[in-house]
Amino acid sequence: MEENNLLRKLPAVDAILQHPEMKELVGTDRTLAVNCTRRVLERCRRDIISRRIEPPSREYLISEIKRHFVETNRSSLRRVINATGIVLHTNLGRAVLSHAACRAAVMAAGSYTNLEYNLVDGGRGRRYDHVSGLLQEITGAEAALVVNNNAAAVLLVLSVLAARGETIISRGQLVEIGGSFRIPEVMAQSGTRLVEVGTTNKTYISDYEAAITPDTALLLKVHPSNFRLRGFTHEVTTAELVELGRARGIPVVEDLGSGFLIDLEEYGITGEPAVQAEVKLGVDVLTFSGDKLLGGPQAGIIVGREKFIDRIAGHPLTRALRVDKMTLAALEATLKAYRNPEGAIEEIPTLKALVASPEILHSRAVKLKELLEKILDSQACFDIQKITSPVGGGSLPLIELPSWGVCVKVETVAAATLARRLRQADTPVLTRIKDDSLIIDVRTLLPGDEKELAISLSRALED
Ligand SMILES: *Cc1c(COP(=O)(O)O)cnc(C)c1O
Question: Ramachandran region of residue 280, left (φ > 0), alpha (ψ -120 to 50) or beta?
Answer without folding.
Answer: alpha
